[in-house]
Amino acid sequence: MEKVSPDCPYPGCFFCVMKEGNPSKRRASILKFFRELPSQDDDGQVLPISGLWNTAMAHPNDPEFIELGIFECMAALIWKGLKNRRWLSHDQNIYIPYYAAHIIGSYTMNMEEFAESAVHAGVIPPLVELLRGRLTWVEQRVAVRALGHLATYPSTFPTVASHAEILELSIQLAMSSLEIVYSHFYQYFDRRLSYHCDLLTRGMGGVEMESRKAEEWASQLQCWSLQLINCFAFKPEFLPAICKPEFLAKLPGMWGGLVNENSPAGIGLLRTICHHKLGRGPVASCPGLIEALCNIARSSDDWQYMAIDCLLWLLQDPSTCHKVIDKAVPTLIDIAEITNLGDHKKLGDSIVNVLQDCIQLQGTVRSSPSNRSKEQIEELLNSRQRLKWEKNMLKEDLHIKQAAALVVKLEGNSLFSAGNISGAASKYSEALALCPMRSKKERVVLFSNRAQCHLLMQQPLAAISDATRALCLHNPLNRHAKSLWRRAQAYDMLGLAKESLLDAILFINECSQSNDPDLSLRQNKVPDYAERLVKKQMRAAWLFREAAIKHGGVHGEGNSGNIYGHETDDSEWETASESDIGNDGRDEMGDEDDDSEWKNEDERKDKYDKPPMKGKPLYFIARLMLTTAFFISGGCSVMCACLFVGLLNIIVVQTRSMDAMCSLPKTNPEYGRKEQTFINVNWLWFMSCRIFSTS
């Protein structure tokens, strides 16, 4: 006779069985419970199933219930819900198929032997029926989760693959899952099924919480579908079914979003496809796919390395190299300064080696890159050779080169302040040619400054290139705040919302963690300009954006749950340089070695309207005094000379207000010659320093 708790009215209650102290009796009672539960029609069946769900979530590696037939019980309950709609609609039985599929997925998540038991128990056919959408998207989500776990193991994958419809259903679900969740749940508040709301929020929260959880579950439904497809992609025989152009083209846009950031999603599947020769051909031939991979490779995405792997494998394959080389080369050159990225050690060297091989294989017409690509690769190889030469140079020579770069950079800053953006960009390029390759901090600033110039000249691609180079040179990687902000703006100009959003979020994060008082956010307040850009890009990258455009906006309760359902005009958001200008007029987001800032239109107009300077009297007087003293003293150390150079050029910048007193009319014809004289004197002085230092 089974022992029943005096407070429990149900004989054989599962919770009473679990309290049995005798292990053998307890096991026998649990075994009996699992065998009899599917055939019972009593009320309250959802309670023990809910308890089993909690147990499976908390102890997925516990073998007790596996040995006693829990998989057979759960499979039978799913079949019962599919075939007996009267039973399904009775009491709270509507929850049972969801819980049953979730329990199967939890117990097969970590242990291969549990997965084998589940397959032998016949769980795959009922899970496939749920995957078809025989019930609702909520059950589809847990079914694809369970099937994804079963497909992970070598011993159980063949059984999963024997159901040919699983792959096709997963592909369709990956492409349509967001639209399904939006149109069947998210869009209409008053049509939401109550049991869906309960499962999403566990009885906590209202409409807004339901909407947020629905977005998270929709992302999981898509990502878990991609994970299941990824298991098939490891087998070459399934690649033709996966590599359909309409599916491949959508993969880069399938990402976990901010709510499911731990999933590689579409880029993870693309990496698996590109790992095999049969997959690389369709990827290389898919319109727009290589450009999307390049954007991810030059972004702050956690899965950046996967896009880089795809590009490198495509270049290493002779059959695809000629199709992608001209698109991939600029991106790979921009990130060639990366040292380590996650588990990838010396990634930059790997990139250089692959590009060098592409040049060496140019004898074959099919693999020959364009002249522009050849020039870019040769420039990269020359820079690597230059780095080797610098290792053998005297420190004094390197200091002179560094000081020369500083002089030219300050000239660029002066031109930028005067409104000559193109001239400033040229000066930064000149400074980069002078700056030693090992002076990474200085090169970061120069690339970032030049990126700002490209932004002002409406050249977003060039701005992305320079900002990316600055971020790759910076230590730690992808953490230079100003470059992040500039690249975020450039991506916004190109309409790449996801990439812009990730950079903007990292920019805010870097500012909040910085010890630099100029970079740190005052009182931990997010700058208004950054907040506006993040909101704008979150609307543009909203998970349900395409579905909302297709099916219409959200309806019900004043559209309170439509977080991104409406557009606001944020086209006039400020830049990092426009906001928080201090009383001294300097941008508080600046740093001491990065002087070029993006002022607003009124400030730039004032700069353009300023009359040109007649000359630089203090500068030339100081330069003459220093040079005379240098010759009289018989020469000083090169290091002191370098310091004087920087000091004197800073004097030029700081004394502009004094020079304004002796300015000529705006139509001064001698302005160009005087600027050139300023440059020539710089170089003559450097040469004199060099002669005396070696004499």
Q: Could you walk me through the main structural features you see in this protein, from its secondary elements to its overall organization?
A:
- This protein has 695 residues and is mainly alpha-helical.
- Among the domains are: 131 residues, Leucine-rich Repeat Variant (Alpha Horseshoe), CATH 1.25.10; 187 residues, Tetratricopeptide repeat domain (Serine Threonine Protein Phosphatase 5, Tetratricopeptide repeat, Alpha Horseshoe); 78 residues.
- 65% of the residues lie in helices and 0% in strands.
- α12 runs antiparallel to α14.
- The C terminus is likely disordered.
- InterPro entries: ARM-like (IPR011989), ARM-type_fold (IPR016024), ARM_7 (IPR058868), TPR-like_helical_dom_sf (IPR011990).
- Keywords: Coiled coil, Membrane, Transmembrane, Transmembrane helix.
Q: Give the overall shape, derived from the CA principal axes.
A: elongated
| Quaternary structure state of the chains depicted | single chain
The level 1 CATH classification of the domain at 379-552 and 597-609 is Mainly Alpha
Q: Helix share of residues?
A: 55-70%
Distance between the termini: 109 Å
* CATH architecture annotation name of the domain at 379-552 and 597-609: Alpha Horseshoe
SS content category: mainly alpha
Low-confidence runs of at least 5 consecutive residues: 560-639, 650-681, 686-695
Radius of gyration from the CA trace?
A: 33 Å
Mean pLDDT: 82
In CATH terms, the superfamily of the domain at 379-552 and 597-609 is Tetratricopeptide repeat domain
Number of helices: 36
Percent of residues in β-strands: under 5%
What is the CATH topology descriptor of the domain at 379-552 and 597-609?
Serine Threonine Protein Phosphatase 5, Tetratricopeptide repeat
Region (Disordered): 559-610
Organism: Citrus x changshan-huyou
Biased composition (Basic and acidic residues): 597-610
InterPro entries: ARM-like, ARM-type_fold, ARM_7, TPR-like_helical_dom_sf
